[in-house]
Write a structure and sequence with these properties.
The complex is a heterodimer of chains A (150) and B (259). Chain A is mainly α and 150 residues long. Chain A is built from five helices and two strands; from the N terminus they run H-H-H-H-E-E-H. A two-stranded antiparallel sheet of chain A has the order 1-2. Chain A is elongated. The relative contact order of chain A is 0.11. By secondary structure, chain B is mainly β. Chain B has two domains: 27-151, Immunoglobulin-like, CATH 2.60.40; 157-258, Immunoglobulins (Immunoglobulin-like). In chain B, strand 7 and strand 8 (140-152) form a beta hairpin. The chains are: A mainly alpha (150), B mainly beta (259). Strand 2 (108-113) of chain A pairs antiparallel with strand 8 (140-152) of chain B, so a sheet runs across the interface.
């Protein structure tokens, strides 16, 4: 990272490279989403707006990832990574109604207890948050090191 | 620092994949879970209770076991008064298992009769509250509840005694023939006996008779009860007391005036 900062690439080329990288990542995430969605598609008729909920999540997740990639090599990358971790926690908590999902289908009241899943997802998001924090600390440390030892 | 960040990344990615894969496969397994209710069977206990056994067929062809399967039903009348309650619990349904469990609901007909002879002579409906709960993949608790109504068919629907006919037998006795009719709307055949006690206007029992009845499910029954009564004690008006006795229940008297 320090070496990269010492020898900055040409801005246009660097930006194109970052954009291609972000595009490739987004494409892979979208393919993963399509694959995972195929398992949940059967519930679409029972849970109104399920696909919309999942798509909104994926769109925002991908966008935050794209922005993070575009500003990679700067401190803003870590801001976006932290935002992404917070977004996952917040969105899952809201979309899963705090872990207890209450649905109604043809006169049948359905309650799905997803607290265990939500708890695991939040813990993993916190891990991602910790990772982003560590990366930010490392980045700032390297910046400080560069300033002190030019 | 680099190593720790990389380790956190690897661990986080690994567990994310594990979590999503588990959750997706558990959700996908639901489509291979088949639950069906077979035709209910009726049986009678020695203490005069009717047991309705509903066979529940469960086929778990998903990827995971099902834990703590529980079916609870509560039957109430239209006023919300509890009539019976039944529960079936299966601790574990392994992957690939096909299980037929019996869900038993015990009805005490005597108690039902205490709540009113209404159900003997009038069609009605019961409100059934059903609750199914289970743990998908032993980790995701799911509950489904529903209320629905079940029609009740009266075994002696539209029961009535028609105009009696009198035929002198000898100087002292008269044979009274009382035509009876009803429709059996119940879901079972009625086998039993109807006893008729005839009273005059002064409340004196002047004679009695009984008749065996066999009324198949959904059929109209027409028959008559013969009574031998004292000619001298018959007045113009009076009343009948009707007693019902079947293998499932006994009821009486039902008072019907005549004349």
């Amino acid at each position: 990272m320090v070496e990269e900062n010492e020898r900055p690439k040409r801005p246009a080329r660097s930006l194109i490279f970052k954009a291609v990288k972000a595009l490739a990542k987004s494409f892979i995430i979208y393919l993963l989403y399509l694959f995972v969605w195929s398992f949940f598609a059967q519930f679409e008729s029972y849970v109104p707006g399920l696909q919309q909920i999942a798509e909104n999540f994926v769109i925002v997740y991908i966008l935050l990832g794209v922005f993070g990639d575009l500003v990679s090599g700067t401190v803003f990358q870590h801001f976006f990574n932290v935002a992404r971790a917070f977004f996952v926690i917040g969105y899952l908590t809201l979309a899963l109604q705090g872990g207890i999902l209450n649905l109604e289908y043809m006169g049948v009241a359905l309650t799905v207890d997803l607290r265990l899943f939500l708890m695991a997802a939040i813990l993993l998001s916190l891990l991602s948050l910790a990772k982003s924090m560590l990366q930010a600390i490392k980045y700032m440390g390297e910046k400080a090191e560069l300033t002190l030892n030019p | 620092m680099d190593v720790s960040i990389r380790m956190v990344s690897v661990v986080s990615a690994f567990f994310w994949v594990l979590l999503v894969a588990f959750f997706a496969s558990a959700a996908y397994s639901v489509k291979d879970l088949h639950l069906s209710l077979e035709n209910p069977q009726l049986s009678l206990t020695p203490d005069g209770c009717v047991v309705v056994s509903i066979p529940i067929k469960i086929e778990n062809e998903g990827f995971y076991s099902l834990g703590e399967f529980n079916l609870t039903t509560r039957v109430a009348d239209l006023n919300g008064t509890r009539i019976t309650e039944g529960s079936t619990f299966i601790p574990l349904i392994k992957r690939g298992d096909r299980i037929v469990a019996l869900h038993n609901l015990t009805f005490s007909v005597e108690i039902l009769m205490e709540k009113g002879a209404y159900y003997l002579f009038n069609d009605s409906s019961f409100v059934v509250a059903a609750l199914i709960s289970m743990k998908l993949a032993d980790a995701i608790p799911v509950k489904a509840s529903s209320n629905f109504s079940v029609p009740w068919g009266a075994p002696f629907y539209n029961f009535h005694l028609e105009q009696p006919t009198f035929e002198p037998l000898n100087l002292t006795h008269i044979m009274v023939s009382v035509p009876i009719s009803f429709e059996n709307h119940a879901s079972l055949e009625i086998n039993g006996e109807i006893s008729l006690h005839m009273y005059n206007s002064e409340g004196v029992c002047v004679g009695q008779g009984n008749s065996t009845i066999v009324a198949p499910q959904g059929a109209m029954y027409r028959g008559s009860v013969m009574l031998y009564v004292y000619a001298s004690e018959i007045a113009g008006k009076g009343f009948f007391e009707v007693y019902f006795s079947t293998s499932f229940f006994s009821y009486g008297p039902l008072v019907i005036p005549h004349g």
